[in-house]
Amino acid sequence: QSYQLSAINAFLKGDMLPEAKAELAKLEVSKGFGLEIPLEFVYTRIDLADQHVGQAMKRLQSLDPTTLSKPQQIEYKQLHAQAVAAQGLLIEAIQEWTEIDRLANADPNTIRDNHRQLWRSLSSHNLSKIKHVHQDDDIVSGWIALALVTKSSPPTQLWQSINNWKLRFPNHPATQHIVPTLVQNVNQTPPLQHIALLLPPSNSQYSKFAEAVKQGFLAAVETTPQNRPNVTLHHVDDMNVLDVYQKLVNDGVDFVVGPLLKDTLTILAESQPHLPVPTLGLNRLETLNRTGNLYQFGLSPEDEAKAVAKRAWADGYQSAFVLIPEGNWGDRVLTAFQTEWERQGGQITTQHVYDSDFGSSIPKALRRQSVKEANMVFMVASSKVARQIRNFLTAIIGDRLPIYSTSHVYSGTPHPEYDNQIEGIMFVDMPWVLAPDEKAAQLQANLFEFFSSEMEKYKRLYALGIDAYTLVPELQQLSQRQWAGQTGHLVIDNQGIIYRDQLHWARFVNGEPQLIEVNQVYTQE
Fold first, then answer.
1. How many CB atoms lie within 10 A of CB 240?
2. What is residue 380's three-state secondary structure?
3. What CATH code is assigned to 2-135?
4. Would you tell me how many other CB atoms lie within 10 Å of the CB of residue 266?
């Protein structure tokens, strides 16, 4: 049994969650069994992978670290540090990882793995909240300073920035394993000369979307002070995408970003099993077949639906009443929510698919007996539609049920004179909209100066363009598999699909979104 648990633990450490769960399902073991790896450690890793941070903390708190062996104490602290970091308490997490160094007693492999784990967590978090926090501990300060240096320095200046950091922190633990890796990546990654951006034609119905992505992308390029790549724009559709792509390959392009539309991207993905140059598609395909050298990144509503399921479950709700618009898009959102909701143990008591004539159908749905069995509502709607649906909800079932929604319920710009009609609704959205850091705020100010009306309508697509450019050098070297982006915490899987994770949450208060902290549990008043 210890051997099986070790194998499961190895799967989890390698981000192979489905394999770990499959093996765990075969295993029958009691918690009291004397095991090399406590069963609670395995379940805690699964909780953390599933973003059930509160449950992970409860499991760890049920253990007495003083009864564990030294290797188990180290693993306990590693798991505790990950859980604390997932709650946004990065300084406390760094202190915990630092303590592991002392426990490891100079074992080089343990210390190396510990530093890598610490660095992965730091690299993937938004550091704006701790940027100005004064720390007397030079080790903690050094880790934070190094992370800020790597996030803020353009590739051409990173080597010098790291050297400056080494002068400030000459004996810092990061100089053992992390800094050499950073320097090696800088030296091995050739600067990009030519990036091609593939977007829909300017005369298509998607031209406004394409323009927002383009301007966001170019705004991010402008933040590169030296050795900026040459970015060329190419209009593609289903008819010409293969010819345009092949010509770019023949001309020696270094990296391709796009296409934006799913059908056009599908044509490119299915044209050959392995694309000749790295390509970042700005959408996510539903096929499971992996096309080599193709990465997929888009503002997928499925990511938000899963986030709603996780958040509502963490808040203590188990029975959902779901309101979804008709059509393929709504079906995808429903499937994503239902899969994650039921995986956690939740149930959908009633689901209603509404059309444009929802004025009569929704009141009927609300009067079903099964609605009374729900203890939360998942509503997917635009802000305009949400206001009308909210009136039905209030009139028929009152305000007893908390309402969760996706980013579509918020236009991206405060309009309290309208949004006071959806008071109290909780929704998930990207950092760019709810909590922009200093870099994002400056980019938004620059873009708003020239594209004020477009920024109000297509704000999130500008962020997609910015993150797309930011991802290009990261995908070129793939030294890590997660990043803090403007659209969310970005994680890449083994299929080259980039998911948005750890999104921000807000609640409408006086008609304006009020940020909710990640570890703040919401209960209906």
1. 14
2. coil
3. 1.25.40
4. 18
